């Protein structure tokens, strides 16, 4: 009896989501018209080298506009025109006005460099516990040792979390709903990661519902990233709900081309919001020309080597902190010199 009742409630919820989608999701023609106006999108996931995570990037005490301005200048010089930037709800909960003011400041800096921004709301990757205030120092030679999920498992242990998240998403979307400095809203990064799997579905559904209720002028999306059977329902919902199709691919060119061909059936613009892991064969010299030829947005992981330690591979820490001969991610050192001058020249030529 209980199981049947739960099934009926879930079905009603899915019906509501479907109705909301029909009313508020962009048509394919609108999405394609929007994309045609953008030109070829290329850029990086951006975290200033002085910040270990989203919190350190946007907290008042550590909001480093000088570094942001300098490093986005390098991005402009490289030919990039979009950066993907992560947010965290704890910053909004602690200081709504100040947080939104800092987002506006960031957008002012990025727009001066002719770079649009793709903001990310939620994330299921890396550390489960997050706090305000001083953030941890990087663990030597460890990839993304201080990155934090949002909201993490607190959504299951603190009953009021969902209400706070709804207010956060709606407030930020409403504030910037017509801001043309923002390219796109990425509502949820890698839902189901960190062995969450289907536990992430309720928040994924809710964040799309909240976005549809606000209906910003910018497109909304959530990128597919894992085609394993555990992610089948998540993938289906992401692909059927997104205005623009976004995805991640960190492997070789044949697989990446197959991913593009598979996603073309949705007849919507495609933006790869994470790629480029040198050890895996996902190289600028191979993948970027493919994405340009296919008119797929190209946003690689990592820009300047810094506190995130993403020159080290996901699963291969280097205890003594020695710089790996082959960087996993990132393009520049903190002094602005590139990991590879040949790679830098290749990117510039392709972008310009």
What does the overall shape look like?
A: globular
Helix content: 40-55%
Q: What is the tally of helical segments?
A: 13
CATH fourth-tier homologous superfamily: Glycosidases
Spatial gap, N to C terminus: 63 Å
Compressed to H and E, one letter per element, the order equals HHEHHEHHEHHEHEHEHEHEH
Explain what the structure shows.
Residues 156-280 form the Glycoside hydrolase family 2 catalytic domain. One of its GO terms (molecular function) is hydrolase activity, hydrolyzing O-glycosyl compounds. Residues 1-22 form the signal peptide. There is one protein chain. With 352 residues, this protein is of the alpha/beta class. The protein has a single domain (41-351), classed as TIM Barrel (Alpha-Beta Barrel). The protein is 42% helix and 11% strand. It starts with a helix and ends with a helix. Residues 1-12 have low confidence and may be disordered.
Which labels suit this protein?
single chain, alpha/beta, TIM Barrel, 11% strand, disordered N terminus, glycosidase, GH, xylan degradation, Glyco_hydro_2_cat
Break the fold down into its secondary structure elements and pairings.
Elements: H1 2-24, H2 28-36, E1 42-45, H3 54-58, H4 65-78, E2 82-86, H5 89-94, H6 96-112, E3 116-123, H7 154-157, H8 161-175, E4 182-189, H9 201-214, E5 220-221, H10 232-241, E6 245-248, H11 253-263, E7 270-274, H12 284-293, E8 297-300, H13 341-351
Parallel strand pairs: 1-2, 1-8, 2-3, 3-4, 4-5, 6-7, 7-8
Helix pairs in contact: 1-9, 4-6, 8-9, 9-10, 12-13
């Amino acid at each position: 009896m209980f199981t049947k009742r739960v099934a009926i409630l879930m079905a009603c919820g899915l019906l509501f989501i479907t109705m909301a989608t029909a009313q508020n999701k962009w048509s394919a023609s609108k999405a394609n018209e929007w994309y045609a106006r953008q030109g070829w999108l290329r850029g990086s996931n951006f975290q200033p080298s002085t910040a270990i995570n989203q919190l350190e990037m946007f907290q008042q005490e550590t909001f480093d506009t000088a570094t942001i301005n300098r490093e986005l200048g390098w991005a402009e010089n490289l030919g990039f025109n979009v950066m993907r930037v992560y947010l965290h709800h704890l910053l909004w909960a602690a200081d709504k006005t100040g947080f939104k003011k800092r987002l506006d400041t960031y957008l002012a800096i990025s727009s001066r460099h002719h770079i649009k921004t793709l903001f990310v709301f939620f994330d299921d990757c890396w550390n489960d516990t997050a706090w305000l205030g001083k953030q941890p120092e990087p663990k030597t030679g460890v990839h993304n040792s201080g990155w934090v999920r949002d909201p993490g498992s607190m959504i299951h242990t603190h009953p009021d979390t969902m209400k706070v998240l709804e207010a956060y998403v709606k407030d930020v979307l409403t504030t910037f709903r017509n801001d043309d400095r923002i390219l796109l809203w990425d509502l949820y990064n890698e839902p189901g990661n960190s062995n969450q799997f289907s536990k992430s579905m309720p928040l994924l559904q809710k964040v799309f519902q909240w976005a549809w209720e606000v209906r910003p002028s910018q497109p909304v999306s959530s990128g597919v990233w894992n085609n394993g059977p555990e992610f089948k329902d998540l993938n289906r919902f992401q692909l059927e709900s997104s205005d623009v199709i976004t995805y991640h691919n960190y492997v070789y060119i044949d697989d990446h081309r197959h991913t593009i061909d598979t996603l073309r059936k949705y007849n919507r613009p495609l933006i790869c919001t994470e790629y480029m892991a040198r050890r895996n064969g996902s190289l600028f010299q191979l993948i970027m020309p493919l994405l340009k030829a296919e008119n797929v947005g190209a946003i690689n992981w990592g820009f300047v080597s810094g506190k995130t330690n993403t020159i080290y591979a996901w699963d291969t820490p280097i205890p003594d902190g020695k710089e790996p001969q082959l960087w996993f991610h990132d393009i520049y050192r903190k002094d602005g010199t590139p990991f590879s001058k040949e790679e830098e020249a290749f990117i510039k030529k392709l972008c310009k």
